[in-house]
Amino acid sequence: MQIKFTMLIVGLLSLLGFSYYKLHKPDQGSDKVKVTIEIKSKLGEGSFWDHHNQRLFWVDIEGKTVHIFDPATKKSKAFNTPSRVGTVVPKNRDEAVIALEDGIYLINTNNGDLSLLSDVEAESTGNRFNDGKCDPNGNLWVGSMHLKQSAPKGNLYKIDIKGTATKMLDSVTISNGIVWTSDNKTMYYIDTPTGKIQAFDFHAGNSTISNKRTAVYIDESLGFGDGMAIDSEDKLWVALWNGNAVARFDPLTGKLIEKINVPAHNVTSCTFGGKNFETLYITTSSLDMTEKENKEFPLAGSLFEVRPGIKGVAGNFFSQKK
User: Fold this and answer.
1) pLDDT at 35 over 90
2) Helix, strand, or coil here: 124?
3) Residue 77 pLDDT exceeds 70
4) DSSP assignments along 231-281, one per residue
5) pLDDT in tens, 186-200
6) How far is Cα 262 from Cα 260, in angstroms, rounded to an integer?
7) Is there a contact between 239 and 248 (Cβ–Cβ < 8 Å)?
8) What is residue 17's three-state secondary structure?
9) How far is CA 293 from CA 26, 41, 201, 289, in A?
């Protein structure tokens, strides 16, 4: 009887241990990920959760489209843009700031009308704008990238509510993910080809940065760091181009904590959404894939979601202080 009881306890402990392992192992299967919108977007990017109005913004850069999705009604609306659109961040219920090839614009989120805010880099025809997010003071930090992706000719700018553009970094090749910690003291930033997530001291008093250093090296075996989100524990969630996944890193140790597989070859951005920021929305691309990869990932270009068991935080709106 004692032997049977002991075996039962061992069996239960083993089962519990297996369950814990499944929940916390570094590499999670794509069966956790659900399709939010099945769509063949060319280059989905720039995801942002509007927590005031409970809706998701994202863009299709090469499809020249701004998308707004309401999870409650499962309805979307889309606005075409006259050129490639790199990112979108809400300003209020009726406006958002977007980055087009020839500058920074405000878009009316009811009818799609555009108004120019800044013509920075309008003459730099070899570049286009890519990812961008707002700092705790409501300034848009948005980066440009070299169209041929072969030289560090891009820049990272800070755009204020008046449209004043200040160059914060130069010699950038593909400007991508950018986030701030909960204490507003650190900014993390990705220039994709470097394979690094850089950390900077962020000075909230005047929205400047200093003390550049490397927080995370992303091994090429994982893919290339693209868009990025930050969670309630100040850990980094990085979309992996050519990596079929989103990875969670600890920026204080540089270690990979977790990886969630996504049924798309090129994963481009992610953001936490939902009423309690429990859902991670993930954008993907259908470009730059071989015939074999197209067959393996027929959902590439779609918008996905997953509940990773970690909560995110509210993003900063344009012109509104945190």
Assistant:
1) yes
2) coil
3) yes
4) BTTS-EEEEEETTTEEEEEETTTTEEEEEEE-SSSEEEEEEEESTTS-EEE
5) 999 999 999 999 999
6) 6
7) no
8) helix
9) 24, 16, 40, 6
pLDDT of residue 30: 53
Is residue 264 over pLDDT 90?
yes
* DSSP state letters, 125-168: TTEEEEEEEE-TTSPEEEEEEETTSSS--EEEEEE-TT--EEEE
Per-domain residue ranges of the chain: 2-306
**pLDDT (tens digit per residue) in 119-141:** 998 887 788 999 999 999 999 99
Contacts of 274 (CB under 8 A, 6+ apart): 49, 71
| DSSP assigned state of 184 | S
CA dist 233 and 231 (Å) reads: 5
Residue 20 pLDDT > 50: no
CATH code of domain 2-306:
2.120.10.30
Residue with tokens 């015939």: 291
Q: Identify residue 197 by its one-letter amino acid code.
A: I
**DSSP three-state, residue 105:** strand
Beta bridge partners of 272: 280
User: What are the angstrom distances between the C-alpha of 103 and each of 87, 124, 161?
Assistant: 12, 10, 14
Any residues with CB less than 8 A from the CB of 115 and at least 6 apart, and which?
105, 106
How many Å apart are CA 61 and CA 267, to the nearest integer?
A: 14
Per residue in 40-75, pLDDT (tens digit) is: 999 999 999 999 999 999 999 999 999 999 999 999
Q: What is the pLDDT of residue 122?
A: 82
Q: Give me the residues paired with residue 303 across strands.
A: 37
Give residue 19's pLDDT band: very low, low, confident or very high (50, 70, 90): very low
Contact 286, 62 (CB under 8 A): no
Q: Which residue has the tokens 């909960």?
A: 182
pLDDT of residue 266: 98
Chain CA centroid to CA 220, Å: 19
